[in-house]
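User: Is it possible to get a 3D structure for a protein together with its bound compound? The compound here is NAP. I've pasted both below.
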Amino acid sequence: MDGRVAVVTGASKGIGEAIARALAEAGARVVVSSRKQEAVDAVAHAIGQAGGEAMAVACNVGRIDEARALVDRTIAEWGGVDVVVNNAAVNPVYGPVLEQDDAVFDKILAVNVKGPLEVCRRAYASMAARGHGSVINVSSIGGVSPEPGLGLYSVSKAALISLTKVMAQEWGPAGVRANVICPGLIRTKFSQALWQDKQVLRRTLAEQPIRRIGVPEDVAGLALFLASDAAAYCTGGVHMADGGYLT
Ligand code: NAP
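Assistant: Yes, that's possible. Here is the predicted structure of the complex:
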């Protein structure tokens, strides 16, 4: 990944942080982004300490102007973009869709779907001018098969899968690839309520060929592959990192 510039959203912890670290270890210059400046400063600093190169940029991807500014700043400082990892997402509610209101749905769609689209739209010209680019959208097993209690979130993740395929179709001729990663249950703050619930954990592991829950690094290797030229012929793909849960 030497010389490549990668923007990773939601990179202050969990899966996004692991992806940012993996890309930096492989030689990429990484823009570490999430809503909280102090949080991304800490990750960028740690990457620097480990010999990598990182820049910390605060951005709430649910706000279109901030999503655009994230890409603009990257291009202004580092001359362009080669890789976009749309990893940030929210799931503010749990329960049946009958109980959810429009404001919640709007927020989920703004962060999980419209934000990723805007970051990519803004970065497209730079990637196309370079003749290559890799978009990696972090969806979920819920985007393939809705998870109980996570209805609207699952809908947003299904939309992200479809959006990725659209990008793959429309941008492939310019050399820009787009792929999806669908993590299963990964041990992060985001999924804490699930893996700390003994019943959910037992049920999940009973259905999963690899009988452990994942760690962020289990997703980072796949992201690194998709970001790199090793995946030069891969686009429009939906790649599972779920321990076989959906098989
Ligand atoms: P996490 O550890 O909670 O990290 C979420 C990251 O997103 C943080 O860096 C957070 O930082 C940032 N973030 C939240 N809202 C944001 C916003 N509006 N704009 C920009 N950044 C925002 O979560 P995770 O488990 O690693 O999840 C990462 C991705 O994997 C998500 O897309 C999630 O849907 C997906 N996923 C996770 C699992 C799982 O089991 N963990 C399973 C399937 C899919 P700030 O608070 O500083 O903004």
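Residues 5-240 form a domain with the Rossmann fold fold (CATH 3.40.50.720). The first helix runs from residue 14 to 25.
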